[in-house]
Amino acid sequence: MSIRDRVAIIGVGATQFGEHFEHGYSDLIVEAAYEAFRDANVSPPQIQAAWLGTCFPDSGGYQGNAGASLADALSLYHAPISRVANYCATGADAFRNACFAVAAGAYDLVLVVGAEKMRDVTARESLVGQLAETGHPVHGKGVTAPGMFALFATRYFDRFGIGRETLAKVALKNHRHGSLNPKAHFQKEITLERYLKAPMVADPLGLYDCCPQTDGAAAAVICRADLAPTFSKEPILVKGLGLANPVGDELAFDPDSDFISFRATKEAAAQAYEQAGVNDPFKEIDVAELHDCFTITELVTYEDLGFCQQGEGRTFIEEGVSSLEGALPINTSGGLKSCGHPIGASGLRMIGEITNQLRGRAGKRQVKDAKRGLVHNLGGLGAVASVIVLATS
Fold this sequence. Notes:
Distance between the termini: 19 Å
CATH superfamily of the largest domain: Thiolase/Chalcone synthase
Strand content: 15-25%
Largest sheet: 9 strands, mixed
Number of strands: 11
CATH class of the largest domain: Alpha Beta
CATH architecture of the largest domain: 3-Layer(aba) Sandwich
Strand order of the largest sheet: 3-2-4-7-1-8-11-10-9
Shape: globular
């Protein structure tokens, strides 16, 4: 079954991403969901089913470990609710599951919410702490995300002859875009000097190469495409949904990995492009939100998504192709670098950004004449990837 043009987004919402010590997990859900309800011109009793994306409930007081967390927050007891967890693709995968349920005819109108509280724990209880202390007793001990992605940066530097100055351009671009986004965690530009003088996290990745851990929630209301005009004057159509997990958790032991590309991204993109009828991504995508958990990830993803050839990511960023004024603006929201990364919420926040870009509602970040957009998430250490293509018609 093709997903193309069977499902429409009619409402999106999101909290500001940041440190919300004064707000609980449920508070964030309510804020994001009710913004989406207002945008869609619907009320909670109309929702027939819902999906909740939360990846690490143990980082937020064990809220989000079941659909009941969403039911309690919104008094949504009349609707079946599924909780989804799929690493950093959690929010996008929750959206994917909801889309398939609508396309299959099981429901007409549904809600998808992604939420995560990352800042309510001590350093030892944090995601970084969990990665360092748990996992496989031999090759998993002490593994952290910055350490693993630093391997990609080192390999990429060696293969294509670039240095930290190229990664700096990704960071400077995304912080500049984030300075225009009132919902971003960080809303200030940075200088090259500040980037280069920042503390090293995992050589060659410094502080400004890494996205922050953040609190936040985002939501989308979706429905059957043929019903969308009854709710919204500007519905956004789902054109393609790709999801791939070809490697699993042991990427470092994958004999086929060259450490300059992510197979999951390539495979998910191929699925989404086939469904959406995309043959030349660079020419046919007008705006994109990419998973820049680290600056090297965005650089590699330019190539994995087919926006440029392998090794040409350097030119792509250095010539300003991916800037707000460029030929293919990427991470107009500021990306994970500026918005932060509440894991379950990020994919839906990115879907909301692209939805608003396609509607012409992005304010100072608006891309002119944007008609087709893309959302990409990379989960784990390259274990899973999601690619979603959206369009106005």
